[in-house]
Design a protein that fits this description.
By secondary structure, this protein is an alpha/beta fold. It has helices at about 15-30, 40-50, 65-75, 85-95, 110-125, 160-170, 180-185, 195-210, and strands at about 10, 30-35, 55, 80-85, 100-105, 135, 140-145, 150, 155, 175-180, 220, 225-230.
Length: about 230
C-alpha cells in the first residue's frame, strides 16, 4: 500500500449479493476492491497481487476458507478477516491459531465489517515490529507473526504444520497434550487421522530444534499420555 494509493481489499466470497454489498460499502469508504468467487481463485489473486487485507468466507467452493487462511498465513502476514455463518465455529477457528486477525458472523452489518477492517488495518499499520509477540525460551525464539523459529539466532526451516505444532505447545508451557488433542488443535478440528501423524511431526521437529533429539530440552514426551513443552 503506497502512501498515495488506497488500501486494496480482496474479498473472497461466493455469494454475489454479499459481495455486492461489501464492495459497495468499501468503495464508499475509499478502498480499492478486488473479488474472487472461490478459494483457489482467491489464493491465486492474493499471490499474484498481494492485497492489504483479505475478507475471507469460510464456506467456499474448490478450496475452503480454512485452507486458504492456513496457506496465506504460512506465506505472509496479510491481515485476514474471516466471515462465517456460525459463531461457535468462528470461536473455535480463532482458538486453533490459524492466524486470522478478526471475524464477523453472518448475517452481519456492512458497517460493522467496515469498522473491523479499519481496526485491523490500523493495528497492522502501527504494529511496533513484525517480531512483536515473540516467545523466547533460552536459545529458542518463536516469532508468530513471521511464522519462524530461531535457535541460537539461526532460523530453523520448519514446515507449516511443524511450526503450528511448536507454537501450540509453546503457548501452553508444561501442559500435557494427548496425540488426539494435538490432532484436534493443530491439524483440523474435523481432521480424521492417527496419532502416528503427531509422533512423526514431533520427531522431525526435535531433529530441527533440539541439540540432542534423543534427550530433548523443549519438546518432551510424557510416557503413556503425550507431549508437553518445557520452557
Amino acid at each position: 500500500m503506497g502512501s498515495d494509493s488506497p488500501p486494496n481489499i480482496l474479498i473472497v466470497e461466493d455469494e454475489p449479493i454479499v459481495v455486492e454489498v461489501i464492495e459497495r460499502y468499501l468503495r464508499r469508504e475509499g478502498y480499492a476492491v478486488s473479488v474472487a468467487a472461490d478459494g483457489a481463485a482467491g489464493l491465486a489473486r492474493a499471490r499474484e497481487s498481494p492485497p492489504d487485507l483479505v475478507v475471507l468466507d469460510l464456506m467456499l467452493p474448490k478450496l475452503d476458507g480454512l485452507e486458504v487462511c492456513r496457506l496465506l498465513r504460512a506465506e505472509s502476514n496479510v491481515p485476514i478477516v474471516l466471515v462465517t455463518a456460525k459463531g461457535e465455529e468462528a470461536d473455535k477457528i480463532l482458538g486453533l491459531g490459524l492466524g486470522a486477525d478478526d471475524y464477523v458472523v453472518k448475517p452481519f452489518s456492512p458497517g460493522e465489517l467496515v469498522a473491523r477492517i479499519k481496526a485491523v488495518l490500523r493495528r497492522a499499520q502501527f504494529a511496533p515490529s513484525t517480531d512483536a509477540g515473540a516467545l523466547r525460551f533460552g536459545e529458542l525464539r518463536i516469532i508468530p507473526r513471521r511464522r519462524i523459529a530461531e535457535v541460537a539466532g539461526q532460523e530453523v526451516e520448519l514446515t507449516p504444520k511443524e511450526f503450528d505444532l511448536l507454537l501450540h505447545l509453546a503457548r501452553h508451557p508444561n501442559q500435557v497434550f494427548t496425540r488426539e488433542q494435538l490432532l484436534d488443535a493443530v491439524w483440523d478440528y474435523e481432521y480424521v487421522g492417527e496419532g502416528s501423524t503427531v509422533t512423526v511431526h514431533v520427531r522431525r521437529l526435535r531433529e530441527k530444534i533440539e541439540s540432542d533429539p534423543v534427550r530433548p530440552r523443549w519438546v518432551k514426551t510424557v510416557w503413556g499420555i503425550g507431549y508437553k513443552f518445557a520452557p
